[in-house]
Amino acid sequence: MFTINVDKECGCFKRSMYENNQMFHDKDTALIEATTMLRTMNEDFCNKHEFSLSENGETFQVIMSAKSQDQSISSGGGG
Prior knowledge:
This protein is an alpha+beta fold. Helices cover 37% and strands 30% of the residues. It has helices spanning 11-15, 27-44, 69-74, and strands spanning 2-6, 22-24, 49-56, 59-66. The N and C termini lie far apart (37 Å).
């Protein structure tokens, strides 16, 4: 089984349709879902954070980090 784990659930994630620790039977399906989640989170969430993807064995880890002040301003997300 392959798992998508979100390391920190921000408010936008909690309000979204996504669930943490989703499990999939095959790697390709998990990777497609993780990539889709990542794109949505980076493009449609509030822009206070940025998200990246890391693979560790059978786990795809979505890692949240705060955007720098310059990135938040240039992307239109005020903070």
